[in-house]
Amino acid sequence: MDSYDVIVIGGGNAALTAALSAAEQGAQVLVLERAPQEKRGGNSNFTGGGFRMVHHGAQDIKRIVPDLSDQDIANTDFGEYTAEEYLDDLGRITQYYIDPDLAETLVRSSTDTVHWLMGRGVRFLPNFGRQAYKHEGRFKFFGGVVIYANGGGAGLVESEYKAAAKNGVTVRYGARAMALLRGRKGIEGVRILADSMEEQIGARAVVLACGGFEANREWRARYLGPG
Question: Which member of 5, 92, 136, 154 has the lowest number of beta carbons within 10 Å of its beta carbon?
Answer without folding.
Answer: 136
